[in-house]
Design goal:
Shape: elongated
CATH architecture: 2-Layer Sandwich
Largest sheet: 6 strands, mixed
Number of strands: 6
Protein name: Lipoprotein
CATH class: Alpha Beta
Organism: Paracoccus laeviglucosivorans
Structural class: alpha+beta
Radius of gyration: 14 Å
Number of helices: 2
Length: 127
Amino acid sequence: MRERLLAAGLFGVLGATGCGSAAGAEPVALKCEPGTAAIAALCDAIRNELVQRGHRIDTDRAGTELVLTANAPRVDIIWARLDVIRDGTRHRGEQGELSVMDRADLPPQQLEFFARALIDRAGAPLR
C-alpha cells in the first residue's frame, strides 16, 4: 500500500508521544467543525488518542480548548491542523496532509496515525 503522509515539509519522523502522562494530564475541550465523514473520523481518532494519553474531555471545566480545522475535498485526502486555545490565546498547530493513492478512501489506521501526529504538533504543548 502506497500511502503518504505529507505535512508541507513539517511532519518528518513521527511517533513522539507529545502530551502529558495519564497521571497529570489536564482536562481539555475538543471542538471539531462539521464536515465530511473523514473529518468526523479524524475527530474521533483525536478524541480517542487524547483519552489514551490520559486527558479527560470536559467542555465545561477545561482550561485548554483544542480546535480541529480540517478540509477533505475528496475521500482520499485530508488537510488538517489542531490549534490550542489557552488563557485566551490561540496557538496554531502545524498543518498536515494525509492522502492515499491506491484506494478510494482513507484507512482508519492511517487516520489514527495522523491524529497522533496532529496532537504532537498542536499549537502549544498539552499539560
